[in-house]
Write a structure and sequence with these properties.
Layout (H helix, E strand, L loop, with lengths): L1 E2 L6 E2 L7 H9 L5 H15 L1 E7 L11 E6 L8 E6 L5 H10 L1 E7 L2 E6 L8 E8 L1
């Protein structure tokens, strides 16, 4: 029985392994694939962090669409996954402005995301949440 390189999951290519041995490696209570997967997912979930920010109406750059803005995101690594979305406390006016702006992330460096407004220039501040993974 061999193991995968990233998580050490058991892989069986030999059909002579007994069913009991195979079952224990796949679904046993000690060091099985299921316990390894549970541990890996639990570790990743603990690494998620959320950072709030605001796309300021006064900070957009450009004369025509797309307008751009660089948002500081404390704790964001250059290669880390940073997913951005509207904050839950965004008002209907802010949500509408975000929809009309057609916001999209176009760049990332350590501690910053660059956002483009491919549609209309937002005339209100837009609260955002960046979820940092990994």
């Amino acid at each position: 029985m061999s193991e995968t390189p990233n998580y050490g999951l058991y892989v069986e290519e030999n059909d002579s392994t007994t069913f009991q041995t195979w079952r224990e490696k796949m679904n046993g209570t000690s060091n099985s694939n299921m316990t390894k997967i549970d541990t890996a997912l639990g570790t990743m979930a603990k690494k998620a962090n959320q950072v709030t920010g605001v796309l300021l109406a006064s900070a957009w750059q450009g004369v025509d669409s797309p307008f751009t803005q660089t948002l500081s995101v404390e704790g964001l690594g250059a290669e880390q996954i940073g997913n951005i979305g509207l904050a839950q406390n965004a008002t209907i006016i802010q949500r509408d402005a975000a929809r009309m702006a057609l916001l999209v992330v176009i760049g990332q460096t350590a501690e910053t995301l660059t956002i483009a407004a491919d549609g209309e220039l937002p005339e209100v501040d837009i609260p955002v949440v960046v979820t940092l993974l990994g």
